[in-house]
Amino acid sequence: MSKVTVRSAKHEDVGVIAEIIRKLGWFKHVNEESPAATERRVLLHLELCDADDSHTVLVAEDEEGVVSGYISVHWLPYLMLAGPEGYISELFVHEDARGKGVGTALINDIKEYGITKGCSRLMTLNGRDRPSYEREFYTALGFEERSQMAMMVLSLKES
Predict the structure, then answer these.
(1) Which residue from 13, 45, 154, 157 puts its CA 20 to 30 A from 64's CA?
(2) DSSP strand E in the chain: where?
(3) Per-residue tens of pLDDT for the chain, all 159 residues
């Protein structure tokens, strides 16, 4: 396992974040758009996340300062909980950096950040067909699957 450093995402990271998303090949709309369009969207959303403290985007760097993954978290107030919930909407690691502690470093840093914000819990969604689910990445970090819940989505626009 190599040394991983986690820091806040900067505008200079837009290109590598867009590249990580594109190399996944999981999202039809991304696969069909130009790299420049992906970068424009990442920049727009990073600027939205930077607008206030209700969102956090962190990147992980290797020893040479190369960004190898990122995490995006949205701090959601719940009236029924003692503190906000941190919703991890994205945690993606460059394919050649997987298994090197990048994802774990990002989760550990966001967990500490959530504790300082007084959060009650962290939550994420993980496709059962994803390698991270199959190898129990989140379970190994203490996440519990909520089998009694159903994920419901109402599309408001084509993705």
Answers:
(1) 45
(2) 5-8, 55-61, 67-76, 85-93, 121-124
(3) 578 999 999 999 999 999 999 998 888 887 889 999 889 999 999 999 999 989 999 999 988 888 999 999 999 998 999 999 999 999 999 988 888 889 999 999 999 999 999 999 999 888 888 878 788 788 888 888 888 887 787 778 766
Please give the Cα distance from 12 to 152 (Å, whole number): 35
Identity of the residue numbered 63:
E
Q: What is the model's pTM?
A: 0.88
**Amino acid in the structure at residue 116:** T
For the record, the structure tokens of 137 come out as 């990445």
In DSSP terms, 71 is beta-bridged to: 58, 91
- Helix (H) and strand (E) counts for the chain? 6, 5
**CA–CA separation, 22 and 29 (whole Å):** 10
C-alpha–C-alpha distance, residues 44 and 40, integer Å? 6
Residues paired with 121 in a beta bridge: 85
